[in-house]
Specification:
globular, 5 helices
Amino acid sequence: MTTDEAQSNRVFWRSRRGLLELDLLLVPFAEGPYANLAASEQANYASMLDFEDMEIYAWIAGRSEPPEQFNSVIDVIRQHHGMKVDR
């Protein structure tokens, strides 16, 4: 297994969360669009996974404002799922 494959595998498993609603958003993202992100965006996504489930879900759902570094990756997650959130 290459380093990139190991990193993608690690991110996939970290994308599996305790909150079903979040699993339904993050797992398909990790299986698909994540691989096409720039390395910096992949790093931002991995950093975002350090936060609590409800916080991440609130950011994606547009209920609270995420730290600015996560905005672009959250936009990609929303686009992947056809979500429209007004800011």
